[in-house]
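Narrative progress, year one. The postdoctoral researcher (J.K.) led the effort to move from monomer predictions toward full complexes, under supervision of the PI. The following entry was the first complex the group processed end to end, covering 397 residues in total.
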Amino acid sequence: MRILFFGRLGDCPPAAPVPPKVRDTDTLRAWLGEGRPELLDASIRIAVNDEMILGNRGLDEGDEIAFLPPMSGG
Amino acid sequence: MIAVQAEPFDAALLLADFSARAAGAGAIASFTGMVRDENDGAAVSGLTLDHHPRLTEKVIAGIGADAARRFDLTDIMIVHRYGAMIPGEAIVFAAAAAPHRRAAFDAVDYVMDRLKTEAPFWKREQRSDGAHWLEARASDVADRRRWDEEQGKVSVDFVPVRIAVLTVSDTRNLETDGSGGYLAGAVETAGHVLAARAIVPDDAAQIRAAVQFWVDDPAVDVVITTGGTGLTGRDVTPEAVAPLFDKVIEGFAAVFHAISFQSVGLSTIQSRACAGVADGTFIFCLPGSGGAVRDGWEKVIVHQLDARTRPCNLVEIMPRLGE
């Protein structure tokens, strides 16, 4: 699994290897959130394999998960 | 043409190029966003724009396609930079070509309002008082909502809404979930967007958390649950969801029972179907049985989620839920 952080979230170093119990985005967020509670905030969106997701999503070994804080384009 | 690039660009050249391509259009409007040299009273010496290598381009392409469809454009161009830039440089260029000026003006305005709030970019300003991450301002979000409101008011056309479907069941999975599967299909058949679909067990905490997550998500307008509205000990959907309601839509339960009575007679009293509004999101809780879900969707919800329903419907009041 590849985990990416964007914007202000990228200021922190990436997490340790993902434990095997993490099989979906909810548990991934909860696991990462133990050390980085800002990831639990509802304003942080998640994209899996370049697709924004809503709700929980099952994860496979080869998935790329991106944590996206509120955006500021233009 | 959509481009996300690190290289600086010359907006005048892009406009000349676009105008040549759009030759024959009655109107061309364009906007160029520049790196400002001060913010909050502090001098800005530079700006770094973080982006997602693929998602950003995909989202911008989607916004461009929406604008082209909505305003009947003959052509559209969006160029957005990422990486490091300095004050005075252009960040974004948007241009629209249309038969008439109003569509061209509006399309550029629309594209910029959506880019500000939806395009995966993250701005970091280097100011005299340090580095600052910027996020969309409240005014940006209000600008973005303008287009939703305007669409609701001026249009008597169908307006798709974004619906999340939650199945409440201890035993079903995505393969065996007939009622949830029916709703997911019916939502899209009606022309709405299936924003998400999930299954949770008959557990009040899990049901409430799932619904709350979607209530908090600005990309979900409506939540429909199926299951857990009966009277047995495991049926806890109303108890789980009702505390989230700012307003209960009592009439929904009354109308649902009147309709369901036609199908199942007095047995309808065993259902505690309910609906309400939570933080601007409509929530409907339907029973788990296939017949009841069809009655609830086909005879009540689908009509009230159709902006064309007269004399009034739930879609047209969505922009006012937060007043």
